[in-house]
Every structure is written in structure tokens, then in C-alpha cells.
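Listing 4. Sequential folding, example run.
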Amino acid sequence: MSTPQPSIKPAVPNFSSGPCAKRPGYDINQLDLSALGRSHRSSLGKKALAKVISDTAEILQLPAGYRVGIVPASDTGAMEMILWSMLGPRPVDICYWESFGQGWYGDIVKQLKLTEVNEIKADYGQLPDLSKVNPDNDVVFTWNGTTSGVKVENGDFIKNDRQGLTICDATSAVFAMPLPWGKLDVTTFSWQKVLGGEGAHGIIILSPRAVERLESYIPSWPLPKIFRLTAGGKLIEGIFNGATINTPSMLCVADYQDSLNWVKEIGGVQASIQKSLDNLAVLENFVAENSWINFLAEDPNIRSNTSVCLSVDLSDAQIKTFINLLAEQHAAYDIGAYKDAPSGLRIWCGSTVEKHDLQALLPWLTWAYQEVTA
């Protein structure tokens, strides 16, 4: 006999970890589309680009002297640009505990072919021993492991008197977790994660120390034009004022501006962070009440409040059926674990997801479990 279905479904069943749900109340007709069809190098285009840059810095409360730039190819493009442009003069500590961090390690040793590289790693669900990071070395790490649901607890492992640079992939953390900006020399992210923006564009945030490295170091390998952040030994300041390296989508820029306006409206980055923490609490209560589901990150101190990864007491085939059942019922879309991660669920809890939608999802999780185990 089939288990009765819950009577209420999430109003927005989009729980994907990227691209993520659009902000509550999103309406594409509300976007300022005045720059569409215009050159991004026109005064109107440059003004729109400059505004998202300045608003990003203001909302994130970046320290004086930090620069924000828009670059191609999402967070991946932003990180690759930094790795190829800045690594080489010092040994590198690479910390990873999931697939994207492991990918940066692969690029550093297989593509850049650097030899002085220290691998500091942990399995899915765990955080490596970050005390092993050498302050004399450059360090590359993700703040939040999007595919493992494990985040850095804080920036205490980063020394204030460090000689190396800190290079942080924060794409599923920025706007959702407090970041110690004074300890981050390079930070990258993309619009389609926490803010639910559109893809294809990345953001690079540089500290003055990072700019000094760019202006004093020339890599031994050739750099494609799309990776170049300097010209004649000086930072290309235009990138950080709205003169992008290549042509951006002004529609995506307008969409990002809409997201930034929304963060301001709800109370700024602190409100965005709290909204995500409140969402995580919904799932924490559910897991505490059900023995068949658990967090991949058992330690709550390192548990992500955006990309929440869960293990389920089911076989791989049953988990696939579980996920398909929820999608067929329009109760939850795209909640399967990342392809390289342990089999399970991944439910996005960033601030663009509404708490009441997560609450409505919970009975459906129970229903799907009962269906596949009946």
C-alpha cells in the first residue's frame, strides 16, 4: 500500500547547489534593462558595471584598498586566472576536502607543474589539519566545500604576519558566511551561487598584497589574454572599474544588480548570512528526529549552511529512485549529491531559499524514504 503523499509542496522546489534558486519575489520584468543592446564600453555600460563592483564592495564591507573585478568563466575562470597569474614565486600549500579543491590541486601540479606543493587534504565530510599551513607559503583553499558540505570554521589558521598569499575560492560561502577579509588576499566567487544570479561571470577580490604580487612577479609560462591582469608591470585598473577583459552579458549584470539590491533590502550581508543559518537549522532539526538521514559533515562546527550534504540509509539505486520521486512530484529538484561525492542528497540552504519551502520539503523527504523502503 502506497504511503499517503503530503498535502503541501514547496512553493519554489529549486534546491540546486548551482545555479541556485532566484531570490524570493524575483521578476525578470523588474530588471533595469537599459544597458541591453548597448556597448559595455559605452558610458551607460561602464556605469552599470562600475555600480555592481562598488555595491559588491560596500555590501561585503571590504577593507579600504581592496579591488573587485568582473572576469570571464564564472568562479572557475576567476580561480584559473589567479592560479596562472600569481603562483610560482613561493611554495604552495593546497588544502582540499572535496572535488573542486582537488581540481585546483590537479591544475597546480599537472598544468602549472609546480614542484614545491604541499597537499593538505581530508576525506569528504572532514576538514584537514589546517594548522599545517605554512605562513611563508602561498595557500590555496575553498572556504566552503560545495560538494562535501564542509566549511572552514574560521580564519584562525591564517597568520596576520604571513609572508605568503591566501587564495580563497569562496563561491558557495560569500554572502552566506562571515569571511575575515583582512586575512584573504585573493577571493573568488560567482553570481549563480549564494545570490542565485546567472552564470558565465566570475568575481575576483584582491587585497593590496595581491596587487603587489601581480605587479612584481612575471610567471615563466605564457598567459592567454583572457588571464592577464597586468600590462607593463602594472595592474590593469580598468578591470576593477568596469572595463572588463571581454564582453560581459549586460543582462546577467542587470540580474546581479537585482540580487545586490535585494541583499540591501533585507538588511545587508548579516541578514543574508542569518537567513542561511536559519535554513540550515530546519534540516538540523529534521536530521535529529530521523535516524535514516545524517549530515556528511558530522561536526556541526564545520557544517556548511549553504550546500548541505546528507547521507541516507539507502542503497545507491534507492537514492536515485528517492531523488527522481521528488522531482516527479515537483517537490524538490536537483538534490542529488555531486557526481564525485559519496551517494546521498545535497540541499541548498542559501538565503535565496525560503525557510517555509524547506519546512514544506521535510514531509516529502519522509514520504520518499517510505516509498523506496516499502
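-- end of first protein; second protein begins --
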Amino acid sequence: MRVLGIESSCDETGVAIYDTEAGLLGQALFSQVDMHARYGGVVPELASRDHVQRVLPLLKQVLAEADTRPDQLDGVAYTAGPGLAGALLVGAGVARSLAFGWGIPAVEVHHMEGHLLAPLLEERAPKFPFVALLVSGGHTLLLDASSLGDYAILGESVDDAAGEAFDKAAKMMGLGYPGGPRIAALAENGTAGRFRFPRPMTDRPGLDMSFSGLKTFTLNTIHDLGGKEALSEQDRADVARAFEEAAVDTLIIKCRRAMEQTGYKQLVMAGGVSANRSLRAKLSEQMKKRGVEVFYPAPQYCTDNGAMIAFAGALRLQAGETAELPIKVRPRWPLTELAAL
């Protein structure tokens, strides 16, 4: 089965073609980061308009790269949620129009299931069941993934997502948007032990997480140093290191508890924050001590992309699932509402 995937949930337009026998045949991605950076975050209306401009040129590029004609496609997959309503509608409208015109089925894909399944694109891939940590700018979830579509939430952030906390902490230090990569780069030059930030909700049982308090602690630390304008480059690096260490430790502690609770020996980590090198290294080290194998997507599949949507859509199309009219998007869509296959 050869499937076209379209991702347009937020600020990246992704298009890809995946073949269940030959693998990924082609992909293209356009990031709107530079456009939104001047505003310090994503502007939904601008995001939607940019998707309109980018999606068809990217589609033509991918069809050429994959050496694929429309009559060789067996289906079209698209992100139906969660995400920004206007951005989702662009991808959904294009995908359903193409499917109708080409006479092939379309299938809705849950954005976070796309992330969850992204590590399965790798040669070394996990097998169900496993624990999944989905950590991005909009979501932080620990899941018991029993099988495709059968997901139970073990824990989640009760306030800010981890990636959102990174972005806000970076803004407090005047680092710009997106904040995650900037904090990670600065943290490499930070002084170990100068600051110690709290590890929220790790002093109590359970798998829920909180990053709002960590954000507040960061703000107070910056205030004690004289404010954003008074920070030296070393101050910024030291605060960045303390923040990153606290966020990473919190996620690792919760993952360790999840593995003990489920008894599973496989852990999947996906989403934009999964590209953080410190988190990858420390998580792998901690899990190896416990006999747990950790799986990640390749760095290009950590952020939003069309490949994960094409792959997830192919699995659902193979199982007989198709999208029905009218065209719908779901800006809020609990992962637990997906059909198990």
C-alpha cells in the first residue's frame, strides 16, 4: 500500500509518501519558525495562510522525489487533530479533495499517534506493548501502548507541557523562539551546581507531571540576578543548565516509575523535546541499568513531519479504516478515543 501523508497541525507543513513494502519514498517539510519568531510564538492565522501556500508545491516535490503518479497511490492520510483549527482545515481540505479527485480513500490521523509511531520508521523498532513518553510543545504524556490504537494514559502534565515550559523559560531569558534548542545549546556551557531548580511532583507518588512551578522558579531566579537585561552570558548558560537538568530529571523519574508500574521492557520517547541530547543520553543510561530498551525517532522525525502521518495512515488504511464525510477536524482530541486495531 502506498500512502500520501499531509501534516499541517501547527507551524510546519509536511508531505510524504510511504510504501508498506518499500518504506519511505519521499518527504518534504517547510518550517514556519522564522516567520513566527518575530512574534515570540505561533500566530494561528499566519500559520494557516502559510500552509495554503506551501502544501501543493511540497506535494509536487514529493511526488517527483518518490517517482510516483497519483494513480499509484492507494490512499491519503492527513492530520485531523489535535492542533490549530485553521491549520488543520488546510491539510484536511487538500487531502480530502485529492482523495476524491483521485478516487482513493482518505484516513484521519491523530497527530500524537503519528509521533508515537515515528520510532517504528527506524530499522531498530519497538514492538507492542511498550510505554511511550510523548513530549512536545503542546503535550506531555506517559502512555501504556498495548497495541495499535489501544492507549491508556498513565500520567500527563497537569499544566504546561514540557516543550511549552522550555519556550517560556527561553523567553524569560531573552533567547527568542523556539526556546528548546536555544536552552539546550546554552546549557552545554552552564556551570554545574550553581543553581538547583525543583523537580516538580517527584516527591509524591504517581505519574502526573507539572512544569508551571519550574517556570516560576526560573522567573524568580532571573529576578534575583537583576532581571533579564542584567543577565550575563554565563548567567544565561547557568540558568539554562539548571532548568534543563530539572526538566530532564523530572521526565526520567516519571519514566522510571512507569516502567516499574507496567513491568514493560521497552520505552518509546517521541515528540519535539525527544531531540534533546541531554534527555536522550540520561534516559538511555538510566533505563539500561534497569534492563529497559529505549527507542527514539531519527532527529528529523522528532518535530512535526509528513512521514509519521503517512506511516500511521498506512497502518490504519491496512486495517480497513477510512474517513467519512463531512470533513471534520478536532483541535482537541484525546488519544484514548482512538479505535484500537
